[in-house]
């Protein structure tokens, strides 16, 4: 399947992937986030992908899908679970499909692009022909999912491109039969997985340049080449972002907890602490990795607790949210409320600012890499979503561990993908008080000054500055000097007296 074969005429015939690119018509936008962020600071219509930059509009129902997040409205509804590969009826996009000559030219260019993709995974720099693919692929883990499988998401979306809005998402919570209850939970997990794949599918169509129009031209083997290239860049982006925070997570440890008056971290080691000496072998990093609900047990005998984690006798799953995700004063004020201070910690926000928008807020990292603009500016993506928060948590957790290579697994049965998914799940209902409060706090925290910056940029040079006044004075002085010089050079012409 996916290989070229000959028909009766002896000519090569390509076996194409059946496509069903029909946007779900019932996707609703998220409600407005309750925050003090100026409206201009969340520019939902700003071009964040190559589609908008190239003038190719995304499907109306999926416009800014990624920026909206993945709540019950941000993710696609339940797709049809059948395995039929029948192509959907022609959509409106099919009426404006390119003519055969244009398709042939694009097919020829795609062959060249795919050839570069096979080789560029081994090179440090991308070839010019696929640079835009590389740039947009690096956004996928940051705003969609850090451990996504592009091939799985695309093939699932192609088979189930039209969601089924009639499928119920609710199962009874009062089932008496344990077998039925387990079956209901299995259905819920399956629906959640299918929703996630559909969200990834539509997000890729929005973010990857020309992907929507190129998919019908690819066979299975070529689709695999494209997805392998995307997956390679997703993996390298995770590693790079974790590496950038490698030193900073130790510096922020002192700064963040000093600002909230926690003296326990005053003597925390600096960036010189090697990676192998972190994780559960160091008190400072171990306490940040410890679940908030188990901090009391950790403080009683941290070495015993860490030993139990490393021997897997004390489980620390992704859903056991680590203490660095919390605002400690808020969490300690109400220990019975596990949501108090969750995802609103100073330490986590510092780490997010490091990669998202350096220099916008008062908190600035100790250094920046020359020539690399912050992600928010590079992609014109001035919005914090539950997925960008979850990605920051995953990257920080990896930087605090003693793993020398970024991995999803760690001791204590920890799974990084589970941590990401459970954080996103907290925002399943966008209108909830927790979602509104948390996203409002984050957008104000990260992009709170963007409105003022944009107003200044829009004002241009209208406001007079000291330099403007000095420039005007020099101009007036030169003008007066030229007038005096001109008057000095002019001949002395006397007006004759009138005769009578």
Fold and architecture overview:
The protein has 500 residues and is an all-alpha fold. Helix content is 49%, strand content 2%. It has 22 helices and four strands. The protein has a two-stranded antiparallel ribbon with strand order 1-2. Helix 10 (220-244) crosses helix 18 (386-400), helix 11 (248-259) packs across helix 16 (346-356) and helix 18 (386-400) packs antiparallel against helix 19. The longest helix is centred in the middle third of the chain and has 30 residues, at 178-207. Residues 1-65, 68-95, 164-168 and 356-369 have low confidence and may be disordered.
Count of individual beta strands? 4
Mean pLDDT: 74
Rounded to the nearest angstrom, the distance between the terminal CA atoms is 116 Å
Give the ordered list of helices and strands: EEHHHHHHHHHHHHHHHHHHEEHHHH
What is the topology, as strand order, of the major beta sheet? 1-2
In one word, what is the shape? Answer: extended
Gyration radius, in Å: 29 Å
Largest sheet: 2 strands, antiparallel
């Amino acid at each position: 399947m996916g290989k070229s074969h000959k028909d009766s005429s002896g000519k090569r015939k390509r076996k194409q992937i059946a496509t069903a690119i029909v946007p779900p018509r019932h996707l609703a936008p998220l409600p407005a986030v309750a925050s003090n962020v100026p409206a201009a600071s969340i520019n939902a219509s700003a071009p964040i992908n190559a589609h908008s930059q190239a003038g190719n509009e995304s499907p109306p129902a999926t416009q800014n899908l990624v920026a909206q997040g993945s709540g019950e409205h941000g993710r696609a509804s339940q797709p049809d679970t059948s395995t039929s590969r029948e192509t959907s009826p022609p959509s409106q996009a099919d009426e404006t499909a390119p003519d055969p000559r244009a398709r042939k030219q694009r097919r020829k260019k795609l062959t060249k692009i795919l050839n570069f993709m096979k080789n560029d995974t081994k090179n440090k720099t991308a070839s010019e022909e696929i640079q835009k693919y590389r740039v947009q692929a690096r956004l996928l883990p940051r705003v969609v999912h850090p451990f996504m499988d592009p091939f799985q998401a695309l093939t699932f979306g192609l088979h189930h491109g039209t969601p089924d809005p009639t499928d119920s998402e609710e199962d009874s919570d009062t089932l008496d039969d344990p077998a039925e209850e387990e079956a209901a939970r299995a259905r819920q997990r399956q629906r959640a997985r299918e929703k996630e794949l559909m969200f990834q599918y539509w997000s890729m169509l929005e973010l990857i340049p020309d992907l929507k129009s190129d998919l019908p031209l690819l066979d299975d083997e070529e689709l695999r080449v494209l997805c392998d290239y995307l997956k390679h860049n997703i993996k390298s982006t995770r590693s790079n972002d974790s590496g950038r925070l490698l030193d900073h997570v130790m510096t922020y440890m002192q700064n963040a907890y000093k600002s909230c008056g926690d003296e326990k971290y005053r003597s925390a080691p600096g960036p010189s602490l090697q990676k192998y000496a972190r994780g559960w072998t160091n008190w400072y990093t171990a306490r940040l990795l410890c679940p908030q609900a188990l901090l009391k047990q950790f403080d009683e005998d941290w070495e015993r607790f860490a030993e139990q984690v490393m021997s897997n006798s004390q489980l620390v799953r992704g859903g056991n949210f680590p203490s660095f995700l919390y605002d400690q004063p808020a969490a300690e004020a109400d220990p019975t409320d596990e949501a108090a201070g969750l995802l609103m910690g100073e330490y986590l926000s510092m780490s997010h600012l490091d990669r998202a928008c350096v220099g916008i807020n008062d908190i600035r990292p100790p250094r920046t890499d020359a020539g690399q603009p912050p992600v928010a500016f590079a992609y014109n993506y001035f919005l914090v979503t539950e997925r960008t928060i979850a990605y920051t948590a995953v990257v920080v957790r990896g930087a605090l561990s003693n793993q020398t290579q970024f991995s999803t697994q760690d001791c204590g049965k920890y799974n990084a993908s589970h941590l990401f998914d459970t954080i996103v799940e907290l925002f399943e209902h966008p209108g909830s008080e927790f979602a509104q409060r948390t996203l409002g706090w984050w957008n104000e925290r990260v992009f709170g000054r963007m409105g003022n910056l944009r107003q200044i940029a829009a004002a241009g040079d209208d406001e007079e500055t000291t330099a403007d006044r000095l420039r005007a004075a020099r101009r007036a002085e030169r003008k007066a000097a030229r007038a005096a010089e001109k008057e000095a050079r002019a001949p002395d012409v006397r007006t004759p007296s009138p005769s009578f």
